[in-house]
C-alpha cells in the first residue's frame, strides 16, 4: 500500500508546524493542546527539522535546559527522515524501525511536508481503526 492510499491520510490531517525560533515551552504547549508527539519545524518557510516529545525528554529535560529560554532550533532533530506519498507503507515501517522513529513527515512531490505518519497511525491500520487525531 502506498502512503497516499492510507485511509485518512488526506482527511483531517493538518500538519502541525512551528517556527524553529519558538521556545521549547511554546512548542510543547502547542503539542499538548493538540495531543500530538511531533511537529515540523520551519525556518523561512522551509522544513528545518522536527521537534518530538523525545527531543523534549532527552535534549531538554534530561540535559537540564530551561524550556522557557531554549529555542526549538537548538534541540530539534535536523537530519529528518521523510517519506513521500508514493512510498509504500513497508518503506515507512522500515524507516521507522531502522531509525527508531515514532514520527515521519510525509512530503509531496516537491518535497514540502503535508502530513505526519505516526506509530499511532500504523496501529490504527493494523487494528483497522480509522485514523484520527484522538488523544494518546
Low-confidence stretches: none
Give the distance, in angstroms, between the N- and C-terminal Cα atoms: 25 Å
- Along the chain, the helix and strand elements come as EHEEHHEHEEH
- Helix/sheet category: alpha/beta
Rg result: 15 Å
Shape: globular
Number of domains: 1
Give the name of the CATH architecture: Roll
Describe the biggest sheet? Answer: 3 strands, mixed
Looking across the biggest beta sheet, what order are the strands in?
A: 1-2-3
Tell me the CATH superfamily.
Answer: CBS-domain
CATH-assigned fold name: CBS-domain
The tally of beta strands, per DSSP, is 6
Mind telling me the CATH class? Alpha Beta
Mean pLDDT: 88
Question: Hey, roughly how much beta strand do the residues contain?
Answer: 15-25%
Number of discrete helical segments = 5
